[in-house]
Specification:
Elements lengths: L3 H28 L9 H22 L10 H25 L5 H7 L3 H12 L6 H19 L6 H25 L8 H30 L6 H24 L2 H22 L7 H50 L5 H10 L5 H5 L10 H15 L1
């Protein structure tokens, strides 16, 4: 008998891989001078942000598909604005790299993502220097250097844009963990786009006015509505597919799917874009880097599982400690307090969440598990 749940899980993974690969290849085709020839990466990114923000607004405010989170001006100013700035920067630099280097080489450079994330986490104080992760980052770096050395069409400008975009994305991930999770906010793709996309659009507007608007006024490029609409629609669908995958699979499955997607994308790019040539040194270097990435993923998944187990065991240990302390000191507990405690323990922690400090709320096991899995996907 066919397991429908398992079939749906693999279907969502397949959709995620296809959409992720399709958006990257589509962006390359649109931006490349050899194909659609629209050499304005900031404009393309602004189209994505404007379209995603508009759809998110309709889903949140008009159709009420999801409920917006409690967003104060202080949270928006200290959390959403800096995260949006680095999100816009990572997309801007990443899309600009398509003008100078191949998709295959870009995917090889993306192996540096764990290195950048670890460095930013250590600098921001959210992670401590660890020998095992440091050795993995060295292995990844060596592999990327070898792969870069073997790149036939190596371009310094394109490589610099891509690496800068990787570090901007890494800093965004760390800021998301430091700022939003410290406030107890968990954003799904719809609410993330609702708050972040308009702000990212505004951040891109200034460089667009300075760098691309003058060129577009004298350019002979024609605006094709259906090309840009379908491109933005694919980018939006990718965000939703990530949400479906997170809800259906675990961290290990998602990371394996990410590695599989990279290999498929490298192979497809050489077929769709014949000028994208892969050398033996490219493959050797990327294989070395991939070994480091796989080990990094394994360590991070193990850390997340260990933290989840410790959190799940915490209530039981606290109960035992409280009983021992109560027995030894014979503490008197008023009936109204004990009744409220029993009442707050029900309803999956909803009532207890409302009584804690909003600046640092206690996260339930399910919510912490969701944060952990989301972070793992974004680190890939």
């Amino acid at each position: 008998m066919i397991n429908k749940t398992l079939v749906l899980t693999y279907l969502y993974l397949l959709i995620y891989i296809l959409l992720s690969s399709g958006v990257i290849l589509y962006n390359k085709w649109v931006l490349s001078p050899k194909y659609f020839d629209f050499p304005f990466p900031i404009t393309l990114t602004m189209i994505h942000m404007g379209f995603s923000g508009a759809v998110a607004f309709l889903l949140v405010r008009v159709f009420k598909v999801v409920t917006p989170v409690k967003m104060t001006f202080e949270i928006y100013a200290t959390c959403v604005i800096p995260i949006s700035a680095f999100f816009a920067s990572s997309l801007w630099f990443g899309n600009t790299a398509y003008l100078h280097i191949s998709v295959a080489f870009i995917q090889m450079l993306k192996a540096l993502m764990p290195v950048a994330t670890f460095m930013m986490a250590v600098m921001c104080g959210t992670d401590k220097p660890r020998c095992d992760i440091f050795l993995n980052t060295v292995l990844v770096s060596v592999g990327v250097v070898i792969s870069s050395y073997g790149e036939i069409h190596f371009n310094v400008v394109g490589t610099a844009y891509q690496v800068t975009g990787i570090f901007a994305e890494a800093l965004r991930l760390v800021l998301t963990q430091v700022l939003l999770q410290k406030k107890g906010l968990t954003l799904n793709p719809i609410t993330s786009l609702y708050y972040i996309a308009p702000c990212s659009f505004m951040f891109l507007f200034v460089p667009w006015c300075l760098l691309e608007k003058p060129g577009m006024q004298v350019s002979q490029n024609q605006f094709n509505f259906w090309i840009f609409f379908s491109n933005a629609l694919c980018a939006l669908a990718l965000n939703f597919s990530i949400f479906l995958v997170i809800g259906r699979t675990g961290a290990v499955t998602i990371r394996v799917a990410g590695v599989l997607k990279d290999w498929i994308l490298i192979a497809l790019s050489t077929v769709i874009f014949p000028e994208s040539t892969i050398t033996g040194l490219n493959i050797i270097g990327y294989a070395i880097a991939l070994c480091g990435v796989v080990m990094y993923n394994y360590i991070k998944v193990k850390d997340v599982r260990a933290s989840q187990q410790s959190v799940e065991g915490l209530p039981e240990r606290m109960t035992k400690d409280w009983k021992l302390e109560k027995k030894s000191s014979d503490i008197f507990v008023p009936s109204n307090i004990s009744d409220s405690s029993r009442g707050s323990s029900g309803g999956n922690g909803a009532a207890s969440d409302s009584n804690v400090d909003e600046e640092a709320p206690l996260l339930s096991t399910s919510r912490l598990s969701h944060i952990g899995r989301t972070q793992i996907v974004r680190d890939s």
